[in-house]
Design brief:
alpha+beta, 11-stranded antiparallel sheet, 9 helices, Tumour Suppressor Smad4, 4-stranded parallel sheet, 2 domains, Rossmann fold, single chain
Amino acid sequence: MKTLLFIYNPRAGKSKIRSYLADIIEIFDRAGYQITVRPTRRKGDVVRWINRHAQDFDRIIVSGGDGTLNEALSGVRIAEEKGKRTPDLGYIPTGSTNDFAISLGIPTDPLRAAQVAATGEIFPCDCGTFNGTPFAYVAAFGAFTKVSYATPQQTKNSLGHFAYVLEGIKALPQIKGIPFTVQTDEDTFSGSYLYGMVSNSNSIGGFNGFYGKEPVALDDGLLEVLLIKEPRTLAEQSELMSDLLRTNLRSRHMVSLKTKKISFISDVNVPWTLDGEFGGNPNAAEILAVKDAFRVAIPPKEVHPALR
């Protein structure tokens, strides 16, 4: 019989997973798995359990928010570095944002997500590393970093992308740019930036379409980079606000590119977030794309064009 380790965060998303546990386990049983269930109790549990037991199971399914997913990815990467066999992952999103699930077309309904996690197609997905630490979909710094997670969901639902930008714009006059020297394999440039993100996602902070109408390919071995320059005058500030509202990535106030590798060097320590969680405050960061970093169960590929 196939074996499955189910790890769930009982506190994620106001503990909504508790109401579905019996039905989820029944779904796994019908899919032919012998099931081991573990609730998390503290930060790092998912990393430790996957690192220790990855090769003992045919599939590992995690339930929680983006932070739980980040831990699962870290556990898989650590186990692989030790030469262990790693199983396919399944993901049941029960957090408040669930960017990774949105990007992969994974349902946010726990029972539908459980069915996909147990029986879905397996997709080899890229990830990034930040100074060696893996992240599933985004590393970010600066002005907008906390906005996506602080904006009420009701506001997001009614105003969409506009809500995210509006919340960020409110803070622009009080924010100072962070001086960086930025280096890729193709170019080196310097500037002062209000915000930056390096991502492999179609959704950031619960909002879709940051990189335009064409979906981001999640398995091309590249990361998307967006940097917002600090405006020097009131006129430039006004122009930047207009470009943000229109998602004009060709703005002279933004840098948008794709790359396999990018480095940020500053004279000051800079706080970063990785998948919405605090990622440290180094003055130098090297970010790499890792192609086909992990295998995850998804709905049929026609559900989401980024996976074609």
